Amino acid sequence: MDHQNTEMDTESLQKRERRRGSCLDVFLVVSIIFLFAAVVAVAAGGVVVMMELRSKVDSSFPSSESMSSTLTGDTPSPAYKMQDCAYLDFTSSELKNYTMSLRTVKYGSGESVGSKFIFDSNKQSLQVKRTGTYFIYIDLKLTCTGICNTGLLSVHLGKELTCEVELSAEDPTPKSRKCWTVSQMEEKTQLLAQMTIPKEGLKNWKLERNSSKFGVFLVD
């Protein structure tokens, strides 16, 4: 009889362990599904935020066409909230290792640097006047004017953003590159555009000044 009781107790324990194991398996599967769904939701939310920021910036920065028209005396759109953004053109088409020269673009009675920024034409730097979150972007366009070589062009805005363009001798068609980031910057942070090229240079490639620029927009 004792032997039978022992067998029954053993079977009962095994059944309990199996039930407990099944419950743990279900719990683990549900937990993994929940975590996966949470990660997907966060990633999707991040994409939506980035798209909204890009849309907001695109609607706030003047386009090249609107800037050109304002230079002829036309009145710019009042939608541009220039106090929160800065927009600078590159002044040279030359490709070399150097601090790139910049210029503001006049429109109406103002310029393309808002009151939240300071542009120093001597240092060729753009300084933010307050700590905050900023959307930073670079637009580059390069064309081949003859027999061109292969190499990598890089433009750095401090440690905040690096924009790279692969140039190929086998494909000398015009190259365009848009780079952007969202970064937290402290008050008085200065941005300088540093260009770097290979030691052998980038023969017969040039930067299209009218289509190349960088901008900064205060998000928060």
TrEMBL record:
SUPFAM superfamilies: TNF-like (SSF49842). The chain crosses the membrane at residues 26-51. It comes from the Eukaryota. Gene3D superfamilies: 2.60.120.40. Keywords: Membrane, Transmembrane, Transmembrane helix. InterPro entries: Tumour_necrosis_fac-like_dom. This is Uncharacterized protein LOC128366209. It comes from Scomber scombrus (Atlantic mackerel).
